[in-house]
Amino acid sequence: xxxLPQATITHRERILLALLAFLVFMLxxxxxxxxxxxxxxxxxxxxxxxxxxxxxxxxxLDISGDISGDLVAAGGNITVTGRVDGNIMAxxxxxxxxxxxxxxxRAGGGSIIINGRVGRDVLAGAGTLTLGPDSVxxxxxxxxxxxxxxxxxxxxxxxxxxxxxxxxxxxxxDIRISVDTLTVLxxxxxxxxxxxxxxxxADISTGAEVQGEIERKPAVKPAxxxxxxxxxxxxxxxxxxxxxxxxxxxxxxDTFKSTKRALTEKTGATIGLGAVTLVLxxxxxxxxxxxxxxxxxxxxxxxxxxxTAAIYLGQIYAAAAIGNTLxxxxxxxxxxxxxxxxxxxxxxxxxxxxxxxxxIIVGLxxxxxxxxxxWRRPPETTATQSEEPAPATD
Length: 394
What we know:
The chain is α/β, with parallel strands linked by helices and 394 residues long. Helix content is 38%, strand content 28%. The chain starts with 10 loop residues before the first helix and ends in an 18-residue tail after the last helix.
């Protein structure tokens, strides 16, 4: 009786199946989000009322219809003139919110302008943030911006880290900020204290009304570590790199040899691929998040984690490979000496940073070529007995 041959799954197929299972597991909980309104194009205009959450991305976004839900937007120029009965989360080059928002506005971009009423807080990170004369923020303003201009009304506190701040409107609570230049104009009204950290005194007009105290604190400057701590950190990081290099050469000798071969035999391709990988990977992860409206966020975060680990391992791979190449060795001694040499070069100002960048690029490129070569190499197969020997016949 013949025995049916057993199906075998190669290592490559196991990886693909695992990735497929992971995608299904991570995306299934996000399926309900697909019921929201999603728009994306170079030019997007929403002029009709929508009773749902809205996700929109593109070049120029114009939202004039009312939205009964949250608005999530990413684009070059974003203009919101309709009513949003929820929160706004936006990122773009220029963001303008003219319509009323019942919830919180969270925005990041080059320039942010708010001319309407915000029912809760405004959290902003931008080059410039302007609260126009008709703006009303019922809650707090929390900002990290280069230039802040307040002509409207803020119901509660103002907090943040600012380059320059001009207050001409009304603040119901305290102003507690770190700022380079602070100006409070005649028309300003502050219901609480003004406490600011700066190297210079604020320019507070005599016509401004401040009901609380005015206090300037010295700007906080980051403390430089002592030479002992810097030496300790250098030794600690060097020991970590040496142990990593030994682990690479002893536990993964084939991968290390492939990386070294790619570095020495395909130097141009290694540098080019490494530079492309270093620059484009973060942008690819960001685009993946934007164009899938956040559905692929877990995948993008995993990719960025792998990318960060690859940057660390890449410079060690490159330093170890260079050490073995110069000493013409294929063992851990050459790898350790290469890493030690790299660690010493890192101590030299400017040159150390340049060498680190070059090794990261070379290491990323060599690792990518080695992995690609390993992936394309056909798996080794072993002959197996699939049938029982046929009985002898006379």
